[in-house]
Design goal:
- The chain is mainly α.
- Helices cover 71% and strands 0% of the residues.
- The termini are far apart.
């Protein structure tokens, strides 16, 4: 509720969660979204590491590619 609003009225999340009768679960929803965000970051980092490992082994298996570079 401390964030400044661009338009007047109630806070956006306050209005949405009140309309859906979920305001009492706001901290649980926030925690779930936080966990999902961290899982998304971990998944992206894992994918980048896997791609780097996969590309490195694919290039190493092609000796003609290294001679052309």
């Amino acid at each position: 509720m401390e964030l400044p609003l661009l338009v007047g009225g109630d806070h956006d999340w306050n209005a949405i969660l009140t309309r859906w009768a979920l305001l009492q679960y706001d901290t649980r929803i926030a925690s779930a979204l936080d966990v999902m965000g961290w899982l998304g970051i971990a998944a992206a980092c894992t994918w980048v590491a896997w791609r780097a490992w996969h590309d490195r082994h694919r290039i190493a298996a092609q000796p003609d590619y290294l001679a052309a570079v």
